[in-house]
Records
---
Amino acid sequence: MAGGAEILRAQWAQSCERLERIVAGLTDDEFFWEPCDGCWSVRHGPDGWLMDYPDEVPDPPPVTTIAWRLLHIAHGNWIYAEHAFGPGELNFPDLEIHGTASSAAADLLASQRPVTAALRYLDDAGLDREVPTQFGGTWPAGEVLRTLLDEQVHHGAEISLLRDLYRNRSAFSRPAR
């Protein structure tokens, strides 16, 4: 019977492969497409690219673009892995905000590598080992990895749906039957 670490490794690998297929061929138009008013996105400001992320998240939270979701996944991967399995020196403001679909997709795939590497060497006992977080406390390594898997699957599915909606956006103007 497969242990928890083996199952987590397999699920992570499958989610990485799926997300790579989802973002393959992503265009800048899709990346920045705002399906409704008030979306959070990635925007070019006077000092470079910025990601909408106010200190207080409204309730309900706004719809987010593919750009926002893709960077959110990648940044989470980088920072959680940095603190749990690396030196813990980088924080969110240190990360690059990519302004093209191709550079953001490449960064996403790169951000998966440290997580994959951490998983490669963990056994079931290692999943229970307390590791540092960017929040200042510790979590079990398995909780960090499950959080990243959940974010990748959740937001990856949203990116996939947004790509479907983008390809079929002309259908939105059709009269209801």
---
Amino acid sequence: MNESTPSVEKHLTVCKSEQTILDCLSENCPQISRQKLKLAMKYGAVWLTPKAQNNQSRNTIRIRRAKKLLQKGDQVHLYYNEAILFSEFKPARLVSDEGEYSIWDKPCGMFSQGTKWGDHTAITRWVELFGLSQNDLLERSCFLVHRLDRATSGLIIVAHSKKAAQLLSELFENRKIDKQYSVRVKGQYPSATTMQRLTRDIDGKSAATIVISSEYLVDKNQTSLILKIDTGRKHQIRKHLSEVGYAIIGDRLYGEYIINGEGRSDLMLKSCYLAFECPITQNQMCYQLSVL
């Protein structure tokens, strides 16, 4: 890599028609090579707001094709950050390919959705760009079905058609998918009945986290828990466990980040089990990962 350009944000109004978007960006961002600009487009860091026509609304969309011709009055937006675009990250692991959708083991640090600064580290775009080819699978479109926090690892479904995405999303919305999570907490989690159902409201909304099982690991003074949630509030499991004094190991938001004098980079929270009736084939599907 030549001279580094850590971060650039540009909002350009096109002054002449029939110019390619790559030429426009290169002309206005000479400090960034054309090769890097092409990658920025591929990785979702370039957006286009078309010129308004006939009082139609102007929808801003990601634009990936370097030879896309611009029209006078269009607006081009570049969100270029080398730390985001070119950083190394752990790949997701294919669990199962079901044709209309696939199941992946998402690593900690990978997003469920992209941001304006790029989307190649989001699970759907990553599968589309890298995951399918790395597993010798046919190229297909990828659509988000449900979300896992960036810090949470484990099972996530990627749909390969809009119809499949809709049908699978409806299963989540109607709570027809059995989801279980594996976590590790410091100390011995109590077996008292009152600690098996955590129901404190989150952000003013009802929330329920159920502890299915626990195993105390004496040599590490940690407890491995299996949980499920009846509601899907933001950071629900993390907040509930922290509130009862058993924050998840590695939780920088709600617990102690320093464990035994050493910082942990990974949150010990994992989506470890998914079971549902496939809305396409009506077969019973079940996917499981090892627990933490």
---
Amino acid sequence: MFGKGEPILLISGATGDMNSWDPFTLKSLSSNHTVIIFDNRGVANTTTGSKAFSIQQFANDTVGLLDVLKIQKADVLGHSMGGIVAQQLAVTHPEKVNTLILVSTTCGGKDSIPPSPQLVKFGTELENKLLNNIPITPQEIKLNMYASLGPAWIRLHPNSLDAIPKKVLPAKDLFPDVPVNTQVQQQKVVGNWRATNWIGICDELSKISNPTLIITGTDDGAVAPANSLIIAGKIPGAWLVHIKDAGHQLMSQYPDKFNKVLQTFLSTTN
């Protein structure tokens, strides 16, 4: 916890820890909010516990954290998987949420837009490599970067590909701060959420009365940008913002634009 003002809770995406947040966003928010960042179960110094990983469990964990901190209600910002958790939190624990900010996310189930078959195939192969300690190739790392940054960003910033190693890399080193078992469990949770044979939470979003901001990049390769339109159509009065040429990591790609939108929303709705 740091900063001064009303509390804002940030929920990380899969394979992310509290250090994955863009420092410019943290600095901007801390100027007028008490910022709370934390690690989801099984990440870094947080124990895995005995309960099965699920979006509902992550939401319950988040409520437990707020209770321990004696915070009755907070602005909630979730990125990617964290945005899924934030939606669940707003539906099942609305008393804990002041405003809701959903970044690069989906409401899941049959109403959502699934990721590309290529990305699904990559995710399955990566899971197998993680479980069996099989090296990941430079080409696979490149595919992961395209999903994260988006082709438009890479076209505009070709030097971003310089970070790709020339040799194979142990799969566990792709996300070094998150244990392999946790990575696999988180990916399974997200996969189940997206599955077309699961109802998702789309039909429950109309229950959300909190001021809501949905923001995504027009070039998100991990979560189809059209998912933001679906969510915005379900939550009454929701704000919807698309950042041109941004990918899944839009916060770090266009921090000035992102933080301006964020502060405008928070100052207008609080």
---
Amino acid sequence: MKPDNTVTERAQIAMMLEVCAQTKPGNVDRGHDYEDTWLEHFLASTILVKPAFDRAWQEKSRIGACIKEAVLLTNTHSGGNTHFGAFILLMPLIMGGDIPGAQKIIRATTVQDAVDFYEAFAHTAVRVNETDGMDIHDPKATALLREKGMTLYDVMAYSAENDMVAREWTNSFALTRKAADLLHHAGHGRSAVSRVFLQLLATEPDTFVIKKLGREAAEETCRKAQAVLDDAMTADEMDQWCLTAGINPGSIADIVIAGLFVALGEGWQWDC
């Protein structure tokens, strides 16, 4: 019988499994890198983030500070931000142990959590909508958070309409739950991860793609993913289409990581 992984290790394994899956059209995987961000950068982040994950599990509070620490720890390589969205999802899951526990954690967030989160955001190159009313890079943003008394949950609710990762905080981690269920249905092992990535991508317009290229590009990406599932094109053909079009479904990848964390805690196995 295999020993159980710790909660921290489970989060690290989830990050590792997502990036090593092949093929995930448009994203870094074991088949290809981006010019400035490589598979090794993602794998380095899974190792470097451990102290922040340990702190989250041990303290079960100060979620904003834990996200900020994770960003700072993983910004020490030249590949830039690799997992910011994943940290937003994983930190409450680590603290709570599962989805119900995570929901309790996020409801208890504070204004200071929101301030720490905004400071973390300033260290990333994450794309935001031009129509967003609160500029993450504006030094006055944290003062506005304090003035309005906005907790980190409030910040996520504010962003939920345009950001599917933030939306997980307000809809009971619905897509995270769906990803975990799909993993259980797909069976154990490596191939399940890439299949679940495609299944989510086929039905959920990726908000990272929307922010970069618009909704039509995201919806066309959904149609391409469904074509792969229907065997009307190959995953490699879709991957090349995404790379040519500059399409990077990064938010779906973050949700797959969260789904892996949950599924692993429920007995799903990757190395059977």
